[in-house]
């Protein structure tokens, strides 16, 4: 007697499995197309933004490279050199630029870093909101407004002379917000686990900040400081208002005029004579090289000062 197998007619019919690629093939193709389109747009925008940068840099190197190749450019000033006469150097302007940048950084970096530490580690309530709002206001201030403000305070109100230190005060107003925002973002990237581990060991908060938080984000802080320096070293309006150009070497921030590379560029370009125009290109290329060297130094410092895992 044979046994017959029965089939459960109440069970739902089974359907063959559909390959994943067949069900999502259309949408995968659409996503791939949008991905390629976004990639093309991104690279196109990058190339479009790169063209003027390469153009300006190439023109500056071609027109200013020959003049800065001279030894006199790095050893002499423009003392006794008229606009129609070739020769002279830019050592007076280079010294003035570096001195003003150093003093500006000496004032701005402690204030900017401490402000960022307060906003990230301690800032709560209305005071922190006011400080953050004021930093945002300083970020959007044009350089000429900062120069006019210091002029009204330093010269008009207090009755002091136009000197290099007044220029540093105006540049400080421009550098502080850059340092604050860049340092603030770097401090926020430090994992909270590092802070909590330090607190668990009984380390005070201020020592945790000094020994853990700031060293961990040091390379980013250095980058922010260099960005701020790159901005203020190229500013011209505050220097014209508060520290007009002089062709001789002057290193005293509290005595008379102060030569810098931006004001040297402005002064020589306004002469509209070929020897002066050549010095304009040379001063512009010199300023680019100084900022480039500062960035390389910052990269070097940041790489060798990182906290190792």
Automatic annotation (TrEMBL):
The keyword Transmembrane applies. Part of the binding-protein-dependent transport system for phosphate; probably responsible for the translocation of the substrate across the membrane. The keyword Transmembrane applies. It is found in: Cell membrane. This is Phosphate transport system permease protein PstA. GO terms for cellular component: plasma membrane. It is a multi-pass membrane protein. Residues 1-26 are annotated as: Disordered. InterPro entries: MetI-like, MetI-like_sf, Phosphate_PstA, Phosphate_transprt_permease. Residues 94-302 form the ABC transmembrane type-1 domain. Coiled coil: none annotated. Keywords: Cell membrane, Membrane, Phosphate transport, Transmembrane, Transmembrane helix, Transport. Its main location: membrane. Belongs to the binding-protein-dependent transport system permease family. CysTW subfamily. One of its GO terms (molecular function) is phosphate transmembrane transporter activity. NCBIfam families: 3a0107s02c. It comes from Knoellia flava. PANTHER family: PHOSPHATE TRANSPORT SYSTEM PERMEASE PROTEIN PSTA. The chain crosses the membrane at residues 40-62, 98-119, 131-154, 160-180, 212-233, 281-301. One of its GO terms (biological process) is phosphate ion transmembrane transport.
